[in-house]
Amino acid sequence: MAFTKQGSVQVWIDPAARLLMIDAASQGRADEVLTCLAKAMEGLGAMLLQTTASPVAAMSEWLVSQEPPAGFSVDRECELKAGDESKAVVRYSRHALDIEEVQQHIAHGKLPTRLAMTWEGRVSFLLTDTLQIKKLTFVDGVFDDDASASKADRFDADAAIATGEIRKLIPDLLEALGGELVIGAAAPRCWRSLGMIRRRFNSITTSIR
User: Fold this and answer.
1) In the 3-class helix/strand/coil scheme, how is 164-180 assigned residue by residue?
2) Rounded distance, CA 185 to CA 209, Å?
3) 191 Cα distance to chain centroid
């Protein structure tokens, strides 16, 4: 006898911003969620967000110039990968990145595929070369700790705060990447963030329409 395996995936839809975010650990799972949403919501269409500047080019510029975009800071985690046959990879963890060694790696063809950043001192995340947001974490002090509130009330409050922060983060990140690249008619954007909000509000992973 086969047993049915059940799971849950959190989804946040912001109709005003035409934004869809899915808490998925892989593109395959995100696609499954989008398929289910399309069946449940007739007429729903979604496409991955694209930006004028590629994340790789932008991250390279920030590391070489040591000048992150306004409102952002570069943290202490990075992955650099060679594009040639060697596929050489250099990873920095808990290490300062404003050093000449990082600039030399980039000059020699190793380009950033992951870069840890913090927005406005409130939200930390790992940006990838495919425009995914991973390790999404809220800095201490962003959430209100109300021990007297019920579990449901705490979840509602945390969800409102988390989505409120992300709603402001995404436009700033898009601007840092040269703005959204619109191809053809506007369609729902989908942003896949593979990070978890390590708090009562589990995670917001996904794509922008």
Assistant:
1) HHHHHHHHHHHHHCCCE
2) 12
3) 7
